[in-house]
């Protein structure tokens, strides 16, 4: 019995045409598949890259925004006024909370309200001023005048002038920048030198964190210690975002203080004692210009706590070492048989 194959049902010419069409379909199908796959892969990669870049940019913008309404700052004011006469105020350490409020339009410009509170649980808020941010620049309006508060777009070596309503304007120069991570977000830390435009030789250091502000001078960069005779020294205690603590000062334990240092001092001859160096990174020497020996010398921190003490008949010069103390402001109280003298010293 003869058996016929499938192809034997066709004439030779028909078989040739059928085979040719099959090869053409195979080539066409194979070509379309490769090109389509390439296009799909390219488009997928492009879309993923755009999405990831967009997500990263959004996160970065949110994390770096100083005007996010979930931000909460706690700023410490160390009033270092020395109590000389009974009517003089005592030195104190008090905290102020800051948060961003609703929008306000002033002279056609949209600002965010900056609110402040001084109670422990920050329940009662009052208006402190107005802020606005344009790209990397942050401006503060106090109700009378607007001035540039921050410029996070500075490059190393560049400067900008802050024209405040005080008796002087000061220049800020960016000395260096380093990158860090806070809450898994990349942030920049800015190290600056600040000095009055009228007295370049009088300089203080300042440190900013991107999206948080100045940690050495407080949110509104109010510290002018050593520049104008201002007795207030501001610093950032804590910074929260969405209820999460992102920054805490290494110098202080708590995020809130309300302490009055009731140390009553009567200084009759404040120039009889000399303290060098001031500021100091550790060792200090106290020299008495008179022949009287000191009966007691105490070093008191900004919270009113005696951290070091020497007593008995102390001959000049008297030496202390503050290397084991944290950076900040201290008071040196010197007592002899005729007077009590208090002097301020900065521990670097």
Describe this structure in words.
This protein is α+β, with helices and mostly antiparallel strands and 348 residues long. It folds into three domains: 7-63; 67-260, no CATH class; 273-347, Macroglobulin (MG2) domain (Immunoglobulin-like, Sandwich). It contains one helix and 21 strands. The protein has one helix at 12-64; strands at 71-79, 92-106, 109-117, 126-134, 137-141, 146-151, 159-162, 170-182, 185-196, 204-209, 213-214, 232-241, 244-248, 258-260, 273-276, 283-288, 294-301, 306-314, 318-321, 328-335, 340-347. Strands 1, 2, 3, 4, 5, 6, 12, 13 and 14 form a nine-stranded antiparallel β-sheet that branches. A five-stranded antiparallel β-sheet has the order 7-8-9-10-11, covered by helices on one side. A hairpin with a 7-residue loop joins strand 9 and strand 10. The protein starts with 11 loop residues before the first helix and ends with a strand.
Strand content: 35-45%
Low-confidence stretches: 1-10, 25-31, 49-63, 225-229, 262-270
Global outline: elongated
Order of helices and strands: HEEEEEEEEEEEEEEEEEEEEE
Radius of gyration, Cα only, in angstroms?
A: 34 Å
What kind of sheet is the major sheet? 9 strands, antiparallel
């Amino acid at each position: 019995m003869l058996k016929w194959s499938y192809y034997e049902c066709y004439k030779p010419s028909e078989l040739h045409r059928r085979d040719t069409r099959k090869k053409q379909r195979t080539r066409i199908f194979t070509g379309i598949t490769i090109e389509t796959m390439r296009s799909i892969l390219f488009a997928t990669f492009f879309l993923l890259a755009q999405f990831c870049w967009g997500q990263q940019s959004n996160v970065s913008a949110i994390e770096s925004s100083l005007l996010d309404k979930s931000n909460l700052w706690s700023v410490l004011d160390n009033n270092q006024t020395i109590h000389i006469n009974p009517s003089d105020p005592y030195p104190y350490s008090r905290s102020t909370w800051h948060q961003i409020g609703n929008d306000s339009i002033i002279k056609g410009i949209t600002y965010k309200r900056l609110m402040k509170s001084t109670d422990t649980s920050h329940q009662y808020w009052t208006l402190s001023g107005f802020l606005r941010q344009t790209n990397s620049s942050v401006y503060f309006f106090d109700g009378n005048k607007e001035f540039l508060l921050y410029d996070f777009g500075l490059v190393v070596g560049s400067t900008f002038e802050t024209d405040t309503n005080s008796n002087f304007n000061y220049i800020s120069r960016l000395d260096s920048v380093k990158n860090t991570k806070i809450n898994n977000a990349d942030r920049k830390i800015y190290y600056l030198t600040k000095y009055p435009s009228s007295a370049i030789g009088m300089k203080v250091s300042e440190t900013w964190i991107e999206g948080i502000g100045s940690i050495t001078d407080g949110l509104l960069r109010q510290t002018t210690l050593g520049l104008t005779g201002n007795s207030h020294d501001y610093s950032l205690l804590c910074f929260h975002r969405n209820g999460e603590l992102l920054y805490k000062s290494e110098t202080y334990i708590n995020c809130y203080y309300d302490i009055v240092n009731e140390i009553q001092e009567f200084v009759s001859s404040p120039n009889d004692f000399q303290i060098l160096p001031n500021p100091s990174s550790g060792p200090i020497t106290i020299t008495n210009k008179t022949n009287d020996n000191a009966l007691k010398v105490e070093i008191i921190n900004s919270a009113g706590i005696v951290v070091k003490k020497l007593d008995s008949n102390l001959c000049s010069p008297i030496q202390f070492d503050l290397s084991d103390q944290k950076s900040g402001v201290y008071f040196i109280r010197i007592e002899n048989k005729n007077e009590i003298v208090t002097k301020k010293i900065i521990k670097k």
